[in-house]
């Protein structure tokens, strides 16, 4: 949460407005640049991890697709040989693998969207960083030209009203852990409510699964005859 909070603070900030309110605009923009650079490093690290997880998920998807196809062919072979018992077992294995396959496909898609979000964030932040660096350089050059003309009596009339110490940083973890605690409470409540019906639910689930397998077996037979 921290990296995204800082990122949105930076992206949504108006650099000129912040500098107008600062006692020391040059110091202020330097702090902003440091913050941007730190945030970019964090986003790049998270992006690399997401890409690795996405590649792993895609590899597993490809493996499971091959296994699902293999068990489909085994079910057809068993039917041709008159072994309905083996065909049922093959279809059951296919069903289990298909469920895992769908889960991994969804996981791969989530990582894909996350990687795109990271890359989009990096592009925006890089643009903001380039603008800040250019402004910082211009300010340094102007300060050098005016250094001799300034007197010690001159002081800035600006009020430093912007706190760059990530005022929302502490709020994010509190909110996050509060939600986690709430989620845990709900899970515990559901677990207690469902404990009494667990055995019955499992029995009906087995019956429903057997019925699905029998239906799929009959459908496969009709397709093969056709």
Structural class by secondary-structure content: mainly alpha
Binned, the helix content reads: over 70%
Count of separate structural domains: 1
Strand content: under 5%
Number of E strands = 0
Distance between the termini: 57 Å
Largest sheet descriptor: none
Quaternary organisation: single chain
Low-confidence region ranges: 152-174
User: Average pLDDT across residues?
Assistant: 76
Number of helices: 6
**Order of SSEs:** HHHHHH
Instruction: Give the overall shape, derived from the CA principal axes.
Output: rod-shaped
Radius of gyration: 30 Å
Summarize the structure.
By secondary structure, the chain is mostly helical. It is built from 6 helices and no strands.
Describe this structure in words.
- It is a single chain.
- The protein has 226 residues and is mostly helical.
- It has one domain.
- It is built from six helices and no strands.
- Helix 4 packs across helix 6 (198-225).
- The two termini are 57 Å apart.
Topology record:
Layout: H1 2-12, H2 15-20, H3 25-80, H4 84-146, H5 171-194, H6 198-225
Helix pairs in contact: 1-3, 3-4, 4-6
Main attributes of the structure:
single chain; 226 residues; mainly alpha; 6 helices
